[in-house]
Amino acid sequence: MLGVLLKSFKSAGRVSGAFFFAGFGTFALIYDVQPLLAEFPEEFGVAPASASLALSLTTLALSGAMLVAGRVSEVVDRRCLMGMSVVGGGVVSVASAFAPDWGVFLLLRGLLGLALGGLPAVAVAYLADNVPGGKLAGAVGLYVSGTAFGGMAGRLVGGVLSGVADWRCAVGVLGGVCAVAGGVFFAALPRVDSRRSVLGMDGRMGLRGVLGRFAAQWRDGVLARLFVAGGLLLGGFVATFNYLCFRLLSGRFGFSQGEVALVFLMYLAGVVVAPLCGRWIGRWGQRRVLRGAFALMAAGAVLSGVDVLGCLLGGCGLITVGFFAGHATATGWVSRRVAEGKAIASAQYLTVYYLGASVLGWVGGWMWVWGEWLGVAGLVAGVALAGVGIVPGERGEDALGVA
């Protein structure tokens, strides 16, 4: 895998390589607290359900910031916006390592989400405007790989550093590293930046026109179902891994913090599965693959409820594979469904996607309080079954939707 990555860097060029690091830094900062959630009740004297707010507030702020950042990027230099996003996120993360109490820590985690919104909102549009068409797919793929590796590395490194030192060290070190990565990213980008609208429309379109296009996409039944499906996918996935660490650290299994961090290596299965979805869609169609992904998540949740370590980890592995397969399928379906305004559709999908993570990640905490792991597994199974039902029917598979 490392050899493939290095080969990709060599062929992709300076811009796409820079976006790999930017994606890595952004998603490492978002998810570095996930393996640390079990430490916050003791550190700050909060309930386990409240501990999940450290991640939920970040993703909630991120979901709103992306919509605003997309519009702001039409009147400011995108290079500066994205660079400041990653560097600013790193600085806020470092500051959060010194938070004196729970309220300040949550405030800084919310500010982190606001700061980071500039990159995912603008990245693909920037690449489309500044990378030759023949190299665009590879550049976007490298950026997506960076986000996937960043999400995994943030969880893994955060957990390992917390086990060696403490959670403050983990958050501070990762924040510093990602701030440097943001600086490298900014320096690597060319100063020439297309002024084409990141929202995929004429920059002269006013607020009424923007809102009209947003509403038109929600009136399309297929798109609306896909937006909600994204929220269910990430919400169930985040709820699982928010409280998996509580389960593994409990007396029943007695993992150390460093051992819990290693569990996040199962994300590599998702990184492998996502690129295969195109082949599966060609054979079985988008509808069957997305329903199958939700069904796999439901089966994994049920399996994880068996009080055996192998069943717990195997079930979480199925949830992981189902999530990555479902997310890859849903995002591609959204893009194919829309004739024009693809960036708006993508932004709406991502907004609901992160909103689902915020809400269901927080609800998962209350399910843990109510029924511990069986409560969380039941929530994820219910969410996944709801996802099976919400997948668009056969008529939405091929028809083109709104302009």
Describe it for me?
The protein is an all-alpha fold and 403 residues long. It folds into two domains: 1-198, Growth Hormone, Chain: A, CATH 1.20.1250.20; 205-403, MFS general substrate transporter like domains (Growth Hormone, Chain: A, Up-down Bundle). It contains 18 helices and no strands.
In short:
This protein is 79% helix and 0% strand.
Helix coverage percent: over 70%
What is the beta-strand fraction? Answer: under 5%
CATH top level of the largest domain?
A: Mainly Alpha
- Supply Rg: 20 Å
What is the CATH H-level superfamily of the largest domain?
Answer: MFS general substrate transporter like domains
> Based on DSSP secondary structure assignment, what is the total number of beta strands?
0
Largest β-sheet summary: none
Distance from first to last alpha carbon = 39 Å
If you average the pLDDT, what whole number results?
81
The geometry reads as globular
SSE run? HHHHHHHHHHHHHHHHHH
CATH architecture of the largest domain: Up-down Bundle
What's the number of helices? 18
**Which structural class do you get from the secondary structure elements?**
mainly alpha
List low-pLDDT spans.
Answer: 1-12, 193-203
Reported by name, the CATH topology of the largest domain is Growth Hormone, Chain: A
- Total number of domains: 2
